[in-house]
Amino acid sequence: MDWLLECGDGVFQKMSTGRLRPAKELFLKTAQVLRFSRDHLRIAYLDLYNADPVLPPEEPSPYWQRVVDGQREMACALTPTGDLIACNAAFSEAFPSGHPPKNLWRWALLVKEAREDVLLEWDKAWAPHLLTEVKLTRFRHPPASDIHALYEDITCAPDLQHITESDFGLDDSARPIRHATKGVGTARFMAADGGGVRFLTVLFEPNV
């Protein structure tokens, strides 16, 4: 086993008997060699380091479309990096084209339509919180993840150079938005995470 782990003689024995607390990289390599399940790996990592491990995203369930279609409010399922997995018709109707973007975070931060037409008061109500959201996600995922490429793009975007990150990401605060079919109002993002997916319900209230 020590040979497979490329470590010194007796290291695995010391780890398995609790006499050695391995470096995080060595533990993850051990878990890979021993084919730990994802949950088994998380339990062991939390026990050793009191923190969640940085793992590659899970493959999303094929049933998310049924989940979002069952929602009355605007709803979508995203990968942690913002790629759209599924959305309902109510969510699609909010966009001027009638079709949601492939990556919600990239659209919201880098696309002119979002900045000027849809996400009202973009530089104050949206961009600072979106930047925090992306930065937090970046630290939760491996360097090979698409979120790192997005982060590099936003750090170079001219329209974002004057934006200061918020103390918190997207929460359930009401933010101004122009809905493509319902007009100007506010949107509240209600988020839940699980199974490698971020599930968003968007509560829209039209201005009176």
Keywords:
alpha+beta; 17% strand; 2 domains; Beta-Lactamase; 208 residues; 5-stranded antiparallel beta sheet
Q: What does this protein structure show overall?
A:
It is built from ten helices and five strands; from the N terminus they run H-H-H-H-H-E-E-H-H-H-H-H-E-E-E. A hairpin with a 3-residue loop joins strand 3 and strand 4 (183-194). The chain has helices spanning 2-5, 11-16, 24-33, 38-49, 64-69, 89-92, 104-110, 112-118, 122-140, 146-156; strands spanning 74-78, 84-87, 175-179, 183-194, 197-206. Helix 7 crosses helix 8 (112-118) and helix 9 (122-140) packs antiparallel against helix 10. The chain has a five-stranded antiparallel sheet with strand order 2-1-5-4-3. The chain is α+β, with helices and mostly antiparallel strands. The model has no long low-confidence stretch (mean pLDDT 89). It has two domains: 2-49, no CATH class; 64-206, Beta-Lactamase (2-Layer Sandwich).
Helices and strands in order, then pairings?
Blueprint: H1 2-5, H2 11-16, H3 24-33, H4 38-49, H5 64-69, E1 74-78, E2 84-87, H6 89-92, H7 104-110, H8 112-118, H9 122-140, H10 146-156, E3 175-179, E4 183-194, E5 197-206
Antiparallel strand pairs: 1-2, 1-5, 3-4, 4-5
What is the succession of H and E elements? HHHHHEEHHHHHEEE
CATH topology-level name of the largest domain: Beta-Lactamase
What does the oligomeric state look like here? single chain
How many structural domains does the protein architecture include? 2
CATH class of the largest domain: Alpha Beta
- Which value, in Å, is the CA radius of gyration? 21 Å
**Average pLDDT reading:** 89
Structural class comes to alpha+beta
Helix content: 40-55%
Sheet-strand content, in percent, reads 15-25%
How many strands, what sense, and barrel or not for the largest sheet? Answer: 5 strands, antiparallel
